[in-house]
Amino acid sequence: VQLQASGGGSVQTGGSLKLSCAASGSILSVNVMGWYRQAPGKQRELVADIFRSGNTIYAESVKGRFTISRDNAKDTMYLQMNSLKAEDTAVYYCNARSYSNGVQNYWGQGTLVTVSS
Questions:
Q1: At 28, is the pLDDT very low, low, confident or very high (cuts 50, 70, 90)?
Q2: Which residues of 35-49 are buried (b: 16+ CB within 10 A; e: fewer)?
Q3: What's CA 56's distance to the chain center, in Å?
Q4: All residues at 6 or more sequence positions from 86 whose CB lies less than 8 Å from its CB, including other chains
């Protein structure tokens, strides 16, 4: 599975951005896709997951502000980010997980989101 993230950029506090993650390859093996982020000096953390069922989970820090979604026809996942805060500044990574043969993790390249006042 190959993942290509895009959509990062610079935005002011309170603004919005939409990230995209285009997937290719063995998509049918993927059970869950998600977005992670890593701020400078911090560990990578889960932002949101979307399961094959369509169920979603969010980190507490982004609930009510971020929305994860996917377009199966385009094999693309999105992260709509609203009411952005300075603490949302990070490199955002898209992730796909397959459980068909053990746990396999796939990562896209990161896309930088910078939120400034």
A1: confident
A2: bbbeeeeeeeeebbb
A3: 12
A4: 13, 115, 116, 117
